[in-house]
Design a protein that fits this description.
The protein has about 300 residues and is an alpha/beta fold. It has one domain: 3-Layer(aba) Sandwich (UDP-N-acetylmuramoyl-L-alanine:D-glutamate ligase). Helices cover about 35% and strands about 20% of the residues. The chain contains ten helices and 13 strands. The chain has a nine-stranded mixed β-sheet, sandwiched between helices. The chain has a four-stranded mixed β-sheet with strand order 3-2-6-7. A hairpin with a 5-residue loop joins strand 6 and strand 7. Helix 8 runs antiparallel to helix 9. The longest helix is centred in the last third of the chain and has 16 residues. The protein is globular. It starts with 9 loop residues before the first strand and ends with a helix.
């Protein structure tokens, strides 16, 4: 595929907005903010949309989003539920373990005329499974996806956390999607949920492509790279070796770079290389939203954009 003329796209991260309570202190997290931040660093307009409580953590989240240069106009305020938090423990290899609070603001996403107008303007949107654990948020997310432009890129970033998913939610989300991203540990679980044998990553990816009429399936492998599969192409990347600070947000950064390249019809191998590079950079820094020049990444981000 030949790259098309560049322009600034409107790209939405939809779902859970929360505070990651790390051993080193609290950091704003949740896929929408992480994804939108890296999307903006890459040169597009990344917009997080979610719901926060009318509490101290909610106020702090708005301030942090503004510090990151992200729009806050589409963040809803909830007078009845607290801002979400996640207790995060990081092991010696930098791998996080999560304990996610329940019945919080992002479980009550509301479908509004404002969100409908935004949906109709988006070039791409990313949604996951975690924010669909409640019926209300699941319904709202579905409405947003269905209201987006017919040619918009819809990324379902599978995120199997605790017991907050079902086979039905995964299947329905894939039917709404253009692109599905899943990690190498989640893929066998998903195939079991669908009652299929998991023979290999490529075989399972191709089965998902045909089963749900997808354009692209991405299988991430942590620091061992990733696999991208379309109907006609197949590309593997071995990943980049870095000194890991923590892996929080690395997958969201990968997704942001994946979408950036996909929108521009970048060759699959280039998309894979760039997405792995950006994901590795975030893993080499503390937290999901490092400063753009941290670790000397600034020139690389400019080159990707």
């Amino acid at each position: 595929m030949k790259e098309i003329t560049d322009r600034r796209h409107i790209i939405v991260g939809l779902g859970e907005l929360l505070w990651d309570m790390l051993p080193s202190g609290k950091q704003l997290g949740g896929a929408p903010a992480n994804f939108a931040y890296i999307t903006s660093l890459l040169g597009d307009e990344g917009i997080p949309i979610s719901r926060l409580g009318q509490d101290v953590l909610g106020e702090a989240a708005i301030l942090r989003l503004r510090e990151l240069g992200l729009a806050t106009a589409f963040i809803q305020e909830d007078p009845d539920h607290l801002t979400g938090t996640v207790q995060v423990d990081v092991d010696a290899a930098g791998q996080p373990r999560f304990e996610i609070s329940e019945s919080v603001a992002w479980d009550f996403l509301e479908w509004t005329p404002q969100w409908q107008r935004l949906a109709q303007q988006t070039d791409a949107l990313c949604f996951g499974s975690l924010a669909q654990r409640s019926e209300q948020s699941r319904s709202t997310i579905r409405k947003f996806v269905l209201a987006s432009q017919p040619n918009s890129v819809r990324i379902f970033d599978v995120n199997l956390r605790q017991n907050f998913y079902t086979g039905q939610i995964i299947a329905e989300s894939m039917k709404l999607a253009t692109v599905v991203k899943v990690n190498h540990e989640e893929l066998p679980k998903i195939m079991r949920l669908f009652e299929f044998e998991h023979r290999s990553e490529e075989d399972s990816a191709r089965r998902l492509l045909s089963l749900h009429d997808l354009k692209l399936v991405c299988v991430t492998r942590g620091d061992s790279g990733s696999l991208l599969v379309t109907r006609d192409e197949y590309n593997e990347h071995p990943g980049f070796r870095v000194k890991v600070a923590d892996t929080v947000g690395a997958g969201d950064a990968f997704t942001a770079a994946l979408v950036h390249g996909y929108l521009r019809r970048t060759p699959l191998a280039h998309i894979n290389e760039r997405a792995n590079r950006v994901g590795a950079w975030v893993a080499s820094q503390s937290g999901a939203t490092p400063a753009p020049n941290a670790g000397g990444m600034g020139p690389t981000l400019s080159a990707i954009g």
